């Protein structure tokens, strides 16, 4: 058992709407708000993967979600929760791809402007999706500090409303609906695991799971080359400012103050995975489940296979977070 010790920090939360974790009522309100907008994604099984992993795996396929990733849940909840006056000024966000595309689509559906700050190393397939959904792209450097700088500049220039990719209670509540669906479809799970980057999906998963089944164990999976979340929770202080070195392009962000607080209260452990193991798991999913997932999604299975003793004989929910892969640059 690796529950994390809470250590008080003096860091300010970036925005007032992110000052408190969403409650169970907020998650159910998000589910109602995005019903008809977001897909109810399937849960897949594979007996051969069960045998390899030594446990019973239930794969929640968010690669089949709109924009090809779970991110649409949080973006839709945030965008459609805005009052008309605020929405008319447009939405600003920062993203390496999937969240930007999700905000762009949600804004297009609502008929309002979208501005997305995008680092230079974002995959072309994700950049194309942001453009195709009608958002204006604002380029920035890879470092989180430059993302924040350009985002603040765009907010000042446009008067738009910030929808942060993870440090936002509305986004977290939206992401939590994936776990809500999974636990209603497959009651009695012993554990849940999702990838972790900024922590929005994992935070929402923990909150939804523990509202339904307080004893369920929640895990995160993180690349060894971008393990700031793991190190933050072990040290009790948010680790910021590192340069990520991982092929998992969706897992290069750092925890926000809000997601850090939620995870240190609810999380069992973050499991750190080498990229080579993630690539092997990605290929295994393609072969056995016959579906396309990106490396950032496959890391959840990779973590299970890397530490089988944690999951042996258990019923495990695995959130496959997305499936946006540049097919000209598959990593094998």
How does this model look, in words?
This protein has 332 residues and is α/β, with parallel strands linked by helices. The chain folds into two domains: 22-70 and 169-320, Rossmann fold; 71-162, Rossmann fold, CATH 3.40.50.1100. Helices cover 44% and strands 14% of the residues. It contains 13 helices and ten strands. The protein has helices at residues 24-34, 47-53, 71-80, 84-88, 98-110, 124-132, 144-158, 169-185, 200-212, 228-235, 257-266, 275-289, 295-306; strands spanning 43-44, 56-61, 91-94, 114-119, 136-140, 161-162, 191-195, 217-223, 269-273, 315-320. The strands form two sheets. It has a six-stranded mixed beta sheet, with helices on both faces. Strand 7 (191-195), helix 9 and strand 8 (217-223) form a beta-alpha-beta unit. Helix 1 (24-34) packs across helix 3 (71-80), helix 1 (24-34) packs across helix 8 and helix 5 (98-110) runs parallel beside helix 6 (124-132). The protein is globular and about 55 Å long. The two termini are 35 Å apart. Residues 5-16 have low confidence and may be disordered.
């Amino acid at each position: 058992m690796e529950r994390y010790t809470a250590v008080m920090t003096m860091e300010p939360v970036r925005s007032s709407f992110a000052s408190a974790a969403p409650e169970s009522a907020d998650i159910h309100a998000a589910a109602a708000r995005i019903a008809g907008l977001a897909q109810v994604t399937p849960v897949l099984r594979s007996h051969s993967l069960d045998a390899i992993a030594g446990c019973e795996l239930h794969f929640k396929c968010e690669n089949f979600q709109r924009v090809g990733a779970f991110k649409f849940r949080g973006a839709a909840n945030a965008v459609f929760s805005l009052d008309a006056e605020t929405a008319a000024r447009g939405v600003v966000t920062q993203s390496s791809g999937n969240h930007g595309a999700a905000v762009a689509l949600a804004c297009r559906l609502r008929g309002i402007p979208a501005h997305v700050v995008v680092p230079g190393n974002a995959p072309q397939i994700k950049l194309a999706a942001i453009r195709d959904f009608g958002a204006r792209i604002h380029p920035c450097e890879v470092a989180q500090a430059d993302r924040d700088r350009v985002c603040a500049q765009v907010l000042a220039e446009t008067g738009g409303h910030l929808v942060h990719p993870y440090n936002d209670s509305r986004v977290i509540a939206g992401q939590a609906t994936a776990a809500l669906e999974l636990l209603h479809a497959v009651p009695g799970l012993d554990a849940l695991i999702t990838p972790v980057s900024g922590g929005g999906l994992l935070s929402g998963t923990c909150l939804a799971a523990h509202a339904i089944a307080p004893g369920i164990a929640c895990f995160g999976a993180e690349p060894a080359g971008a393990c700031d979340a793991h190190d933050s929770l072990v040290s009790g202080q948010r680790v910021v400012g590192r340069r990520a070195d991982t092929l998992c392009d969706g897992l290069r962000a750092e925890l926000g103050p809000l997601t850090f607080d939620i995870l240190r209260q609810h999380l069992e452990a973050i499991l750190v995975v080498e990229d080579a193991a993630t690539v092997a798991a990605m290929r295994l999913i393609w072969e056995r489940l016959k579906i396309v997932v990106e490396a950032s999604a496959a890391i959840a299975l990779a973590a299970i296979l890397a530490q089988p003793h944690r999951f042996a004989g258990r019923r495990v929910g695995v959130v496959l977070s997305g499936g946006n892969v540049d097919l000209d640059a598959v990593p094998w």
